[in-house]
Amino acid sequence: MDTDHARLCLLLHSLPRLKNRQLRHLLVHFNTPAALLQAAPEDLLAAGATAAAVQDLALARRLGRHPQAAVDITAQLDQLRAAGAQVLVLGQPDYPPLLAMTSDPPPFLYARGHVAALCAPQLAVVGSRKASAIGLRAATELAAAAVDAGLVVTSGLALGIDAAAHRGALLAGGASVAVMATGVESVYPRRHAALATELLDAGCLVTEFPPLTPPLPGHFPARNRIISGLSLGVLVVEAALPSGSLITAGTALEQGREVFALPWFPGHVGGRGCLQLLRDGAVLVEAIEDVLDNLGPLFNGRRPQRAPAPSAETAQAHWLLALMGGTAVDVDALVAASGRPLPEVLSALSLLEARGLVLREAGRYLCTEAGLATPRESG
Predict the structure, then answer these.
(1) What angle do CA 173, 174, 180 make, to 5 degrees?
(2) What domains appear along the chain, each with residue ranges and CATH number?
(3) At what angle do helices 133-148 and 342-354 cross, to 10 degrees?
(4) Long-range CB pairs of 369-372, under 8 A, 24+ apart, other chains included
(5) Per-residue pLDDT tens digits for 152-177
(6) CA 152 – CA 118 distance, rounded (Å)
(7) CB-based contacts of 364: which residues, under 8 Å, 6+ apart?
(8) Please, which pLDDT band fits residue 360 given cuts at 50, 70 and 90?
């Protein structure tokens, strides 16, 4: 870590009347933190700095700190050094280019691990903290498939879908980026400390918040715009209504990113956010190929071979009826029996339930009388 560079960044970040929007503009205008701090008052004013910000910069330049700063820069610097973290500055070559092109990029990013992962093609995989077992499995499988296709998997290190996505990427031998709502030296929730350590082997931890920042509630929505801003698209695996994942999807749309969602069956309360996204125009995902096909020229990585096109009957999900017969079965059994990806099975169940051919009872699925009477193929 370049200690002098990090200290300058922390100093600028600590100034009480130099807000992020103005700091972003001045950093890009003056190119480096050092040039910004040394700029003459008249040059600062000409560049759009407020009189209050010019006064704060003058104090920082003269004293090496700001008397009214709410943080201890020396303590923050010690935390960065102990964590082996780096500070990435907006406008500099190592700052993630996709994030830099958004309307609200952080002026500084604090990162540890393999920071090159931040500039690699990424897919955000997000969802509910209180995910179902099926949702967790889908997140793990889709994240692994994304890694196999050459994508880095990005998420928020939260409980539920986020953690499953990170683990899926790691199990597949790929890289994963965790965007944090705290300082880079700490992990929230604490139970994910071991997972965060594993991420550092191939990916990285990143945050816009300086060291010693606690996980305040308002930080999580702010963090979500970074998750989407780093990524080519956002895949929402499982989300209820309302949901923080829908906030991430909303920021993705504002940033011009593609939004993807799994097609949960209507009776699953935890998947209603995904159904809303699909109604609003999100891309329906049954397998990772659906993501890759819609990223188009944005990503030209390794694409798994898609299975041959099914017959008309199979396309209508009737193949699933042949596996169910007259007994109640769970999703895992249907996945195992069909050999098809979990998202595809969920999509078929959703369609069949909507048509009144399948009922869900106590977590299992049962053909209705109409379903038993429907012609079907074994597909």
Answers:
(1) 125
(2) 3-70 (1.10.150), 115-298 (3.40.50.450), 312-372 (1.10.10.10)
(3) 130
(4) 371/321, 371/324, 372/321, 372/326
(5) 999 999 999 999 999 999 999 999 99
(6) 9
(7) 328, 329, 330
(8) confident
Type of residue found at 56? D
pTM value is 0.82
Residue 80's nearest CA partner among 182, 7, 167 is 7
Alpha-carbon Rg for the chain, nearest whole angstrom, is 24
Residues in CB range of 165: below 8 A, 6 or more apart:
125, 126, 127, 139, 140, 142, 143, 153, 155, 176, 237
Two tokens at 52? Answer: 């209050």
Neighbouring C-beta atoms of residue 235, cutoff 10 Å:
34
Number of H helices, E strands in the chain: 19, 11
Packing angle, helices 244-254 and 272-279, rounded to 10: 20
Whether the Cβ atoms of residue 285 and residue 291 lie closer than 8 Å to each other = yes
How far, in Å, CA of 30 to CA of 168, rounded? 42
Question: Backbone dihedral region of 134: left (phi > 0), alpha (psi from -120 to 50 degrees) or beta?
Answer: alpha
The C-alpha atoms of residue 79 and residue 184 are separated, in whole angstroms, by 9
**pLDDT tens for each residue of 282-315:** 999 999 999 999 997 777 776 554 444 444 333 4
